[in-house]
Design a protein that fits this description.
Elements: E1 2-5, E2 8-14, E3 21-24, E4 30-34, H1 40-49, H2 51-71, H3 78-96, E5 107-111, E6 118-121, E7 126-130, H4 138-150, H5 159-168, H6 172-181
Parallel strand pairs: 2-4, 5-7
Antiparallel strand pairs: 1-2, 3-4, 6-7
Bound molecules: zinc ion.
Length: 212
């Protein structure tokens, strides 16, 4: 529920929390959560009393976004990014040819994805990668390539899937960490999108939502 109090527009969510939680997100939006028992007018008053704090936090978030945009490495042009990812995938394909659909080299796509680094579609036999992956260190790129290739045999994040990744890249955990540490813009990839829990792969749109 969107509300305005003390000149602050915020989203009120009802949750079983003891107190009122007030938070300014990285994008500057404001979220308050409160127990269903707390009247909305009370939450409004709470937000009004903290309006200065909210504005300061929003200014800080805006400054951080600006700094990160300035520091972010420039994205390569799409054809260049595609050629690069194709070459990287071709290098790994021989290790996965037995499990690729039809045994063929998968189609490779590069997209401006904001929530994940890669995706795998069994239906179309396509591996797609975020264009931004090209700005990451090679070990991290290799990890995403291997991760997506492994989904052809394991369309989930089961222990068998991780064992298959580890077989090719025993140090995959360190590589995965690079995706989070590098670039300072890792928060553009929300935490929930990481491969932390097993989740069935949806072939809808060819995306495994939990891919790195
Ligand atoms: Zn995945």
């Amino acid at each position: 529920m969107e509300r305005t109090a003390g000149g602050i527009t915020y989203t009120l969510t009802r949750r079983r929390v003891r107190n009122i939680n007030l938070r300014v997100r990285a994008d500057g939006s404001v979220v308050a959560s409160a127990s269903p028992r707390v009247p909305a007018a009370y939450v409004d008053a709470f937000v009004t009393a903290r309006a200065d704090w909210v504005r300061t936090a929003q200014a800080r978030a805006a400054a951080r976004r600006e700094r990160e945009a300035a520091e972010a490495p420039a994205l390569p042009p799409k054809p260049e990014a595609l050629a690069y990812m194709q070459a990287l995938c071709r290098a790994y394909y021989p290790q996965f040819s037995a499990t690729c659909p039809g045994g063929a080299m998968p189609k490779i796509a590069v997209r401006d994805m904001n929530t994940r680094w890669g995706s795998c579609s069994l239906r179309t036999g396509t591996l797609a990668f975020a264009r931004r992956l090209c700005t990451m260190p090679l070990p991290a790129q290799e990890y995403v390539v291997v991760h997506e290739f492994c989904h052809f045999a394991h369309p989930d994040h089961s222990p068998a899937f991780w064992a298959a990744v580890a077989e090719v890249l025993p140090d995959y955990k360190q590589r995965e960490r690079m995706l989070k540490l590098r670039g300072g813009r890792a928060d553009a990839f929300p935490r929930g999108e990481r491969c932390l829990r097993p989740r069935p792969q949806t072939d809808e749109g060819g995306a495994c939502r939990d891919c790195p």
